[in-house]
Amino acid sequence: MTAVRKKKELVDNLVKAEIVKTVLTLIKEEQPITMDEIARRCSVAKGTLYNYFKNKKALMHYVHQTVLGPIRDSNTAIFETPGDPLVQLHKFIESAFCFDKDVSLYFQFVQQERTVANQIDDRFEVVMRPLIRFCSDGIQSGPFIDVDPYVLAEMIYGTVIGSLISIQSRGDGTSDMKKIKQDVIRLVDKIILK
Questions:
Q1: Which candidate, 189, 175, 191, 17, places its Cα nearest to that of 97?
Q2: Model pTM?
Q3: Are 192 and 145 in contact (CB under 8 A)?
Q4: Fold for domain 1-52?
Q5: What is the tens place of the pLDDT at every residue in 72-91?
Q6: What is the DSSP letter of 144?
Q7: What are the φ and ψ backbone dihedral angles of 193, each rounded to 5 degrees?
């Protein structure tokens, strides 16, 4: 790779990172997400955005994939690394409870903006597929109860993610996240272990 090409790639990555950061900031501030406002806040011409993205939909798709990427990678690393299934499951729960507040706000925004079909596809690709494989392995290797791995994965997902959603909807700001996480771990352990 030539020095010029490397420099262009670096600049492109920096601009795209700034765009993602700006979109997340607009969501946090509950401001409309427009190409004009993104360009203004990124200190670039609106045409520059169109050099990177065909339209706002393509830009938002990029933001979405950028937010999902680390979550997908984390889940893959947790569930595809050989080891004690219970330790892996606890790591998954820990990672779910460590979401950045901006990421949580982004997912609230996504629930309002994306279709149910898109949300189901994302959930299946990012969490459920690796979780189902993991549950299947845990059932075959012995520590998990012998039930349909899809049912077991849905139960784990619902318990973990459902708890996080209920915390957000409480809105009281007094939730003891550490205690709730420990309660979720205890509950999941009681349900899935033989």
A1: 175
A2: 0.77
A3: yes
A4: Arc Repressor Mutant, subunit A (1.10.10)
A5: 898 889 988 888 888 999 99
A6: B
A7: -80, 145
Quickly list H helices, the chain. Answer: 3-28, 35-42, 46-52, 56-80, 85-96, 101-113, 116-123, 129-141, 149-170, 177-192
The residue length of the chain stands at 194
User: Which stretch of DSSP H or E encloses residue 173?
Assistant: none
Sign of CA dihedral 153, 159, 160, 164: positive
∠56-58-62 over CA atoms, to 5°? 115
List phi, psi (to 5°) of 144.
Answer: -95, 150
Tokens of 31: 């401001």
Residue spans per domain, the chain: 1-52, 56-192
Is 188 in contact with 97 (CB distance < 8 Å)?
Answer: no
Beta bridge partners of 3: none
Residue 192's pLDDT band (cuts 50, 70, 90): very high
Domain 56-192 has CATH 3.40.50.2000: no
Structure tokens that stand for 139 in this block? 């059932």
